[in-house]
Amino acid sequence: MAEDRGQFSSKLGFILAAAGSAVGLGNMVAFPVMASKNGGAAFLLVYLVFIVLLCYPVMMSEIAMGRRTQRNPVGAFTEIAGGNSLWRWAGKLAILTPFMIAVFYLVITVWLVVYLGQLVTGHLDYLATDVAFDEVVSSPSLFVYLLLLMALIFVILLGGVKGGIERLARVLMPSLVVMLLALMTFVLTLDNALAGVRYYLIPDFSKLNGSVINSALSHAFFSLSLGMGILITYGSYFSKRDNIASATRLVAVADTGIAFFAGMLIIPAIFVFDPGTNTEDLSTSSVSLIFSFLPKIFVLMQATFGYVGASVFATLFFTLVFFAALTSLVSIIEIPIAYLIDEWGFSRKKAVTFQAAALLLLVTPATMSLGMSESLTAFTNYAGVSKSVFDVISDVFYETILPFGGFLVCMFCAYRWKFSGLSEELAQGDENYRGSFLEKYINFSLGTVIPVILFLVFLNTVALKYFAYNLFGV
Ligand code: PHE
Fold first, then answer.
1. DSSP letters of 358-379?
2. β partners of residue 380
3. Contact assessment for residue 220 and residue 51, using Cβ atoms and an 8 Å cutoff
4. Predicted confidence band at 286 (pLDDT cuts at 50, 70, 90)?
5. How many Å lie between the centroid of ligand 1 and the Cα of residue 224?
6. Which long-range contacts does 434-441 make (Cβ < 8 Å, 24+ apart)?
7. CATH, range 2-375
8. What would the pLDDT profile of 399-413 be if each residue is shown by its tens digit?
9. Among 314, 326, 288, CA closest to 110
10. Is any atom of ligand 1 closer than 6 Å to the C-beta of 26?
11. Which of 322, 328, 400 is the best mutation target for the ligand 1 pocket, counting ligand atoms within 8 Å of the beta carbon and taking the most?
C-alpha cells in the first residue's frame, strides 16, 4: 500500500513539504500584523509558549496517527479506533476543514496572481490607488486567473507526493528563505528601519488580553497547519525509520522563524517608506494589508529607487508571498485527494479531477462574494456584522474550528489510542523517546491541560464571533 500512496524520499523531503504547508499567507502577512498590533515581543512570547507547550505535542500526535495507519484522517481515526465508530466523524471533519480552507485560500491566491500580473506589466501605480483592491476583487476576469492557477495546482498534485509536492517544496522553500532574508537585510539597512524594529520587538504587556490570547492560539494552529488532518496525511507519507520528534521540531522552528523574519521585513519596511506611519492604521485585516496598504508603500520607494526599482521590489515581495501560498494550497488540497484515493478507491488522476470540479463549484460563489454579486456579498449577518460567503467560510474554518480539531486529536490519542500506542509509534525511529522528558510531558498534558485550553478557546471564539459575547470577560 505504501508504494501506491507514495512516500517522501527522506526526512528532509518531509520537513520541506511540511514546512511548505506551514509557511503561507499566515506567516508572510497575518503574523507580522498580529504581532505588531498586539504588543510586539509580548505577543511573540505568548505565541512561542503556545507553540512549544501546546502545539508541538499535538503536531507529533497527528504525525504519529498518520504514520501508524498509513492512511488519510478518516482512515486513521477509524483504524486506530478499531472500526466504524463516532471517531470517524472527527476524521471527516479533518477532510472538510482543509477543503473549505482551500476555498478561501484559493480566492486570495488568485488576487496575488492578478497583482503579480499588474506588477510585471508596470502597473504598480495603479495598485497603489484607493480603488485598485475593490476593482481587482470584483472583476470577472478573476475567473481566467483562477482557472490558470487551478491548472497549475492540479498538475502539481497529479505528480503525487514525491514527484509533485516534495519536488515543489524542494525548490520553493529554499528560494523563499533566501529571498526573504535578502529582502529583509536590504530593508534593515535603510533609514528609519530601526523605528520599525523597535515597534515590532519592544514588548508591551499592557496589550495582552483574553482575545489576544485566543487569536495567538488559533493563529498558531493555522500557521502550523494543525488541527485539520494535514499532518495526519503527511505523517502517512513519513518513513518509519525517521524521528518524528526532531522532524516536527524543525518544521515548527522553520514556520515560526519565517513568521518572525517576515515581521522583520514588513514592519520596518512600512516605517522606512512612510516614517509618519500611524500604527493604528495597520489594518485589522491581514488580507487587506498586503493588497491595499503595501503597494502604497512600494510606490513611496520611487523617490529612492525609481519606478522600475520600486516595481522590482514589489514584484519580488509578491512572488515570495505567492510561493508561500502555493505550497500551502497544494498541501491543503492533498488531504481530500488522499481521502478519495484511500477510502473511495479512486486513482490519483480521478481523485484530482473530482477535487478540481468540487472546488470550482465552491470557489465560484466565494470569488463572486466580494462585490461581484450583491446577494453573495451581503450573504448573511451575525453578531451585528454583515458577512459575505467568503467571510462565513473563513470565520468558520479558519478562525473557529481549528482548536476544536486539535481538541479532538488530543482526546482521541489520550483516551482512545491510549498513551501506550502513541508512545510506541513515537519511539519508532527515535531510540531516545522512551523515558524522555518529552514522553512524560506528552503523557501528562495531552489528555489534561492541552485539551482543556483548546476547548475553552474554541468556546470563547464561538461566543465572541457569532454572538458577540465574551465568556471570560477580558
Ligand atoms: N499554514 C498556512 C499558513 O500559515 C496555511 C494553511 C492552513 C496551510 C491550513 C494548510 C492548511 O498560511
1. HHHHHHHHHHHTTTT-HHHHS-
2. 387
3. yes
4. low
5. 7
6. 438/245, 441/57
7. 1.10.4160.10
8. 889 999 999 999 999
9. 326
10. yes
11. 328
